[in-house]
Amino acid sequence: MADGVLFIGWGEAIPGREQTALKVFGEAVAYWTSLQQSGKITGFEAFALEPHGGDLIGFALLRGDRETLAQIRTTDEFIRINGRARFAVQNFGVVSGVTGGELQRLFAMLEEQIGELTAG
Q: What is the tally of structural domains in the chain?
């Protein structure tokens, strides 16, 4: 079930590395496409943000099974591309997340914990 996401966010290109940043982004899109074509992720979408005074200027969401996404994060190719990105852009980061049924399960668990902690 596609209940997991990887949020990959980035900021401005490091000054003087703008071309490198574009090249690495192209490599990342090709890699994400290969993950989708091989069935390892259900899909991905990349976003560019308008100027808003923050450090985040773009991000991508990769969707898939949580365990498979966790495995992808430890592959040499994922680590290689992310390493290249860190040398090209500022504020690069990858964060795991949940959606769909897993998000509902998480909220139900949190609600139960809140109830236990506030019962009195």
A: 1
